[in-house]
Amino acid sequence: MKHLLIAALAFSFGTPALADWQQTLDEARGQTVFWNAWGGDERTNAFIAWVSEQTEAQYGVKVEQVKLSNTAEAVTRVISEKAAGRDQDGSIDMIWINGPNFLAMKEQGLLHGPFVADLPNAQYLDLGPTSAASIDFTVPVEGMESPWRLAKFVFTYDSARVSVVPRTMADFVSWAADHPGGFTHPAPSNFMGATFLKQALIELAPDASVLQQPVSDAAYGVTTAPLWEWYDALRPNMWRDGKTFPENESIQQQMLNDGAVDISMSLDPASTAAAIAQGLLPETARVFVPEDGSIGNISFVAIPYNAAHAAGAEVVANFLIAPETQAHMQNIDVLGSFSVLDPSKLDAPALATFAALPASDALPTLESLGPTLLEPHASWMTRLTEDWARRYTK
Amino acid sequence: MNNDGRYLRLTVLSIVGFSLILPIFLGFWQTGRAAFGLFPALGRDTLSLAPWRELVMLPGFGSSLKLTLVTGVSATVFSLLLATGFCAAVHSRVTPGAGARMLTPFLAIPHAALAVGLAFVLAPSGWIARGLAPFVGWDRPPDLATVNDTWGLALIIGLMIKEVPFLLLVILSALTQIPVAKHVSAGRALGYGRGVVWVKIIMPQVWPMIRLPVWVVLAYALSVVDVAMILGPSNPPTLAVAITRWFNAADPGQILPASAGAILQVLIIALGIAVFVLGECLVRRVGRWWLRRGGRGLSTEPGLHLASVITVVLMAIGMLAMLSLLIWSLAWRWPFPQFLPESWSLRSWTNSSSGWQRALSNTVFLAITTAVLSVALAIAWLEGEDRARRGRAAWAEALIYLPLVIPQVGFLYGLNIAFLKIGISGDMTAVIWAQAIFVFPYVMIALSDPWRGLDHRTLDSAAALGAGPFKRLVKIKLPILLRPILTATAIGVAVSVAQYLPTLFMGAGRIATLTTEAVTLSSGSDRRVTGVYAALQTMLPFVAYLAAFLIPAFLHRNRRDLNGTIQT
Question: At A328, which CATH number?
Fold first, then answer.
């Protein structure tokens, strides 16, 4: 009887997805979604706590953040569960994911979905085949992960201490020669360190278009030769002679605050303004990007194949792309991450909410961030970090 | 041979065997399979040596291995030397009780919290540099690798600050069983220097009693993960850290070489212990010849002073580290090179989003549960020994020490898979179980000596008055041993609070404790929030030790001879 009713409803609305969605909402009510997300950023943690309050009030779905120090921990955990034969009732309901971790899970068949098209708020996304929300590190998303925040690679410096900053990636060599010990980057085993290398690779590669294809031996040698030449020139003038590296960007930001280095980096253009407000960077900290633009990507959430609360996770994924949520997230006082929604699909009141958000001196405008460069295919990143480790880990 | 209490002994033995020792072997079985190419979940199902080849080919493998050996062995050897020297210098001046009280803060503080604090004290932007800055004219941190240095010196210092007090305590308690004063005065009367009396007369008697704890220190130093992550070099890190990273690499295929590395970690510890055993044999031969030569060695005095000075300096740095945690948690802005924060704030404590309240309650719950369960099991074990009227067999002693000399990283990953198969991973039960594997041995070791030191005449009188074994246990032993039992519980609490890998692996990351949060946060940018967690982490074992001191003092306030010390 219930099924008939749902079928009837589906016909009357003409959109089967919406009827399914009601079913998902019913199933999700009362669930607790264990969201595995990198826990190194207090603002993100606070935002996730806010999400939990909202979804609990609106849909009866609680969110519990499992704080990771490295997203791959969650991938490893799902693999262990598969190894132990726990194909349902898994301990992870949702993962903040992208790039190589997504590729690994997709290739191993560890993901639930496709589910993105079923989310009612997906109507605000640009899901065209070439849009940023449909391609993750050149790997087609195919509805297996849902976007939630925009990331763009930026550098941070203290304008009170340093007057000149490098204008291009190539400039870093001469800049570091003038400021010995003033520059470093997170170890490339960390996502941010790898992104720094990719940012340089895109600018220095003789033909950057091959980076959009899976890596081949022939292309790898030719494409990365200028990068290593550049890096060998840069490294001797780096902090501690380029022999040791901070674990991640948070530690590097702390080093910038201590004055141990002059430049730090982030995938979140708002992080500088937020860190100033929290007393973690001096008032004079500012953001810069290379002239030719910087790497941008989208952070997604994915649901493991054995998630115990897949319905709840879908409800949370849907909540994350609601225009009100995205506007709240873009508020510099909250998270300051740029929205992943397509402005052309938003109505006037939603656009007005975005326009009314507060500004800050240390918060760059979207225009000043320059063009967005596409992430190379994920296989390049794996190859690049392995090669770096081979060359510089003695 | 006595059959009294046979069922009790069998029950205890099977609980220990099935719930504490078997999991270790299950874990190693899983890890071992992966190390030899068997990991069906990734489609790897042929037996091969490929993971070992991959392991050796991983970048930095050789350096990691070397670093592990250098830091592990030197931290152990230096700790042992310092503890011995310090004991020799101050033994006649402190009572064992006072010594133990002095050492308590260092024994109580979890390794990770100490490492976080130490990183701040020693770092180029840390307290020592800030103290020097006005005199040297630094307006930015000096470009010196004082933590995470490629030699692993900061790591060695960090380990020593924890291990010297531990060995001191062990040596002090061993010394209570030797007539030290007599031996020393006899030696001095024959013209031997104070240091030489210790090396030639006292230490040969002490060594058999501290051998196992020294192995535990060695095994720990060779396989520690959290401290090495915070203080050790990062590129490449020590083997244990590298293995943890490989287990969590983006390329899941690295789980196989990581497993091979985990097995290698076991071999390294076995090798390390073998080297110590060989060294012991060698010293035994050479030592005899050396003793007979009869050198008086008056020149050892400066060595003793040096050992005492270094020990005191290490302890002072440790105290600074603990203090720095508290100050950071109360700071708001604290730029270099200011010696104290520019502005203070309680925000890190009051900000609800940092969620320390939940981590605290989880930690307290886990600590009390595992400690109480472990103490109950230890009492049952000791009572079983009493009823059989026999000492502990060597194999039983080995069983107790086993979890302490094997590397956690070696079997926890495999154990997690085994736990998942029986469906208990990711909840409190799994974490309590995994922690108990490490809490029980410490509790057992702490309780054994006081238990055996109980004056049997009291028990005989009770038996003569018609009290059965159970009544003797409840009415006589437990009340008399209240203080050692509570102290063992406090030690259990401290061990439980400090557990990082077992909580992380078995809790599937869902069970947040002060330690897991502090280690995660120490990779973040906010020292103030890290300070909150690390300070709480330090306070908790303190409170437990304080309770272990105050409760018997209150209950036995009118019982002069029930102060818990061994009656002789």
Answer: 3.40.190.10
